[in-house]
Amino acid sequence: MRIIALLLMLVVSATAGKYDKVKITPDMAYIYVYHKGKAVKVHRIQDTKHKLTGEYARTYRPGKDIQPIKMHKDITTIGEVELLQFMVNKGNKKKGLLVDLRPKRDYRKESIPSAVNIPAETKDNQTKVEKILNILGAKRAPDGSLDASRAMEVAFYCNGLWCDKSSEFIKTFLELGYPADKMLYYRGGIQMWKILGFTTVTNQ
Q1: Is the separation of the CB atoms in 169 and 120 below 8 Å?
Q2: For 69-118, how does the pLDDT look when each residue is reduced to its tens digit (9 = 90+)?
Q3: What string of DSSP letters covers the chain?
């Protein structure tokens, strides 16, 4: 891990200034995260004339409602900067997990770097849900209650401002006893991520 960190520092110093045209914040041009064991540089598209095309450029979807900023009184909603901080401070240190709730075919096509795919419909399969809870550090106690004292922090996202997959999945986890302070809701989802020109990865 130390060798990888040193290599990343060398790469950062060698590429300093190359991603300063379109920054993330005044003090942040890019970050590094790990995706399937490889370091990925996450930055914004530097072409100032770039325009979004395709599915996520659409502004209307029949039967879909805009999701509220506060999907639940106890759940923290985050934006892109907070998500990036989570990816670096939690994800990179294996203290947190970024979860993409979209269908597997969409995840394969592209996702936010470091995200793992748990299709939203998984919440309806009790056996799979129990396995996921175990992986996240929440164990089922002998009396049937959920021991979430060692539960991992999780950030959930789906298609975007109009998608309810994250809200519904988080509500299911709350009902099962997963602690609210261990879950984050990235409301912008993949659509806002792409609108802001952030790096995506394929998962073939």
Answers
A1: yes
A2: 999 999 999 999 999 999 999 999 999 999 999 999 999 999 999 999 99
A3: -HHHHHHHHHHHHHHTTTT-SS-SBTTBSEEEEEETTEEEEEEB---TT----SGGG----TT-PPPPS-SSTTPEEE-HHHHHHHIIIIITTTSEEEEE-S-HHHHHH-B-TT-EE--GGGGG-HHHHHHHHHHTT-EE-TTS-EE-TTPPEEEEE-S-TT--HHHHHHHHHHHHT--GGGEEEETTHHHHHHHTTB--B---
Which domains are present in the chain? 54-195 (3.40.250.10)
Collect all residues with Cβ–Cβ distance below 8 Å to 160 and sequence separation of at least 6: 56, 188, 189, 190, 191, 192
**Res. 6 pLDDT band, cuts 50 70 90:** very low
Q: Which residue is associated with the tokens 């996921």?
A: 132
pTM: 0.90
